[in-house]
Every structure is written in C-alpha cells, then in structure tokens.
Specification:
alpha+beta, 337 residues, Beta-Lactamase, disordered N terminus, 10 helices
C-alpha cells in the first residue's frame, strides 16, 4: 500500500487541476497564448523547468518551435528545428517517447544551457483529428524525479485537448483573420461590434470606434507598386497590434486601406488619446523600401457611445466614417471626433 501511495499522488487534486487546465486551454483561440498556456499546464503536471511546443508546418516537412518555457520565462521564437530521433520515433509510433537526454535533442530547447546529463527527455505527440500528429510537446525531467504512470496518463489526456484546440484556433484564424495583415476581417468586425453594443446596453460603460485610412494610398501604389503597398499594410497592422490592449481591443481590416478598431470600455476622450498616439506612431515609422525608407501618414475618425446613448451598429459605423471623411477633407494626417 505504501508503494501505491507513492505511485498515486493526490489524484483528486490532480484531476481538479486537469479540469482547470481544460478550461484554460479550450477557451483560448489565440495561437501564441494557447501555446504558452499549454506549456504552462504541462509544466504544472510534470514539474519540468524546460519545455518546448513544436508544430509541424502544414504542407511541409519542417518543424517550428512556437513556444519555449525555461524556468517560468516564456519566449516565442518561431524558430525552425530539425527532426531529431525522439521526434521521428513519436511521429511514427504516435506514442510518448522517454529517453536519456543527449546532444542530438539539444536543439529542441533552443540550444540553451540545460542540465541534460542527468535528465530524461519526454516527447509527447499532439494528435488531432484523423489521428494525425500535428506537433509535439517536449520537456526535461531529472532522473531523480521521473513521472509516475498517473502523471503520464493525465499528460496524454492534456495533450489531446491541446492538439484539438490548436486545430480549432487555426480554423478560427482562417475564418476570421485577413491573410495579408493578420487583423480581423470585416465579417468578424460586424459580429463583434454587434456583441459589444448589446453588452453595452447591460452595463454602465462606454464603447468607441477608431477608423483609419492611409493617406493618398492609391498614389502610393501607382508610384511604388502594389507589392510595396502590401508591405505598408502589413507594417501598419503591426503598429496597431503593438499599441492595442491585448485581449480587449479588436483591430480589423475594414476594406482596402481602411482599418477600424473596436475599443471596449473606452469613452470618447480615451479613444481620442488612442487615435492621436496611433497617428504619431504611424507618422514616425520608417516603412522599408529596399535600402531606403518611406513615410506614410493616416487620417482617423473617432466616435463613442455609452449605455445612456446607444446607436445601432449601422449608425455607429456611419458616425465614425463621417469623422474619418472630415479628417481627410480637412488636410489628412488628422484625428477628427
């Protein structure tokens, strides 16, 4: 009985943790946040300080480390990595592989300084639909504290959930993300704006829209070419991502060179501050053009509503669009509200 207790740590606590992990993982649709959550949960169960999540590139034999966790610190290297003996074995067998850590597997942890001499590497397959291996989670465990069979079984369940959620996140991205800029598409914008307006009617809060247009973008394309224009759109989208509130603001490509950002819990004053910051960031940014750099400006319109003054979706969009038109009509590179 004593040995059984050693092999069976508090099962009830472990399964409570597993349920919590499931809620954390299955509700996440952002691929990078999902990868980080996944490694964090595996770290909790395995007590490992060195973990990596590796994805098999779709339609390619190459591998990509999408997240790494070392001593509680995340990195998102998106670094290519070669197939190693452990990865090959797991891919072919679709089963967990446990072996002595060796130099051949060192690259899986970004060639970090790790105590591999007295460690075992655990390599778990991420098996999704159609029984297909879409990636791996690898981690190190000291020889002195190997995982119990119960821990291995729970990790197998956890990785199945992770694999399924990764597939769902990828499908969500395909359906809602603009392929060029990585921002949300207009259809998703319409859905989310309607949801935010409905939520506003139930809360004492505010909701703002910021709509932007790249100044003289047609002339820019005619002068430098559409390929350079695409680079401008991609760089501008990255500026948006850098200044929005993660997991709250919703940046979308409205059409062509127009963008719109939904700002929940933001009044008109806060939205104006945000818009001015965005305008300045864009004007100061050096957009690459071969060995040179280009300057681009944007015009912005701002509108806001609150629970005492709610507009329909169509009227709200019309209001912010009219302010954008005003910014363009009064000289461009301006914010109007």
């Amino acid at each position: 009985m004593e040995k059984e207790n050693l092999e069976n740590p508090d099962i009830e606590i472990m399964f409570q943790t597993l349920r919590y992990a499931a809620r954390q993982i299955v509700s996440e649709l952002d691929p990078q946040l999902l990868a980080n959550h996944a490694l964090e949960m595996v770290a909790d169960f395995s007590h490992s300080s060195y973990l990596s999540l590796i994805i098999i590139n779709e339609g390619s034999p190459s591998l990509l480390i999408t997240s790494n966790l070392k001593n509680g610190v995340f990195s998102a290297p998106n670094t290519g990595v070669a197939w190693t003996p452990s990865l090959k074995k797991v891919f072919e067998s679709k089963k967990i592989c446990i072996r002595k850590m060796n130099q051949a597997e060192y690259c899986l942890f970004l060639d970090m300084e790790i105590p591999y001499q007295n460690s075992k590497i655990y390599c778990l397959p991420l098996i999704g639909t159609k029984n297909r291996v879409g990636g791996f989670i690898v981690f190190l465990v000291p020889d002195s504290t190997p995982l119990t069979s119960i821990q291995e079984e729970i990790l197998a369940v956890l990785t199945t959930m992770i694999a399924t959620t990764i597939e769902n996140a990828n499908l969500f991205q395909l359906a809602t993300m603009d392929g060029l800029t990585g921002l949300y598409v207009r259809r998703y914008f319409n859905i989310r704006l309607q949801e935010e307006i409905a939520r506003l009617s139930r809360t004492e809060s505010s909701l703002a829209l910021v709509m932007t247009d790249i100044d003289h973008f047609k002339n820019f394309n005619d002068t430098y070419g559409h390929q350079q224009g695409d680079i401008i759109l991609q760089e501008l989208a990255q500026i948006f991502r850098n200044i929005i509130r993660k997991d709250l603001d919703i940046p979308c490509r409205f059409g062509g060179e127009e963008f719109v950002i939904i700002l929940p819990s933001t009044d008109l004053e806060g939205a104006i501050v945000f818009a001015e910051r965005l305008r300045h960031k864009c004007a100061a940014h050096l957009f690459p053009y071969g060995k040179k750099s280009l300057h681009v400006t944007i015009s912005l319109g701002v509108a806001a509503i609150d629970n005492t003054h709610i507009l329909s979706k169509a009227d709200f969009i019309k209001a912010v669009d009219s302010k954008l038109y005003e910014a363009k009509a009064t000289g461009r590179n301006k914010v109007r509200f």
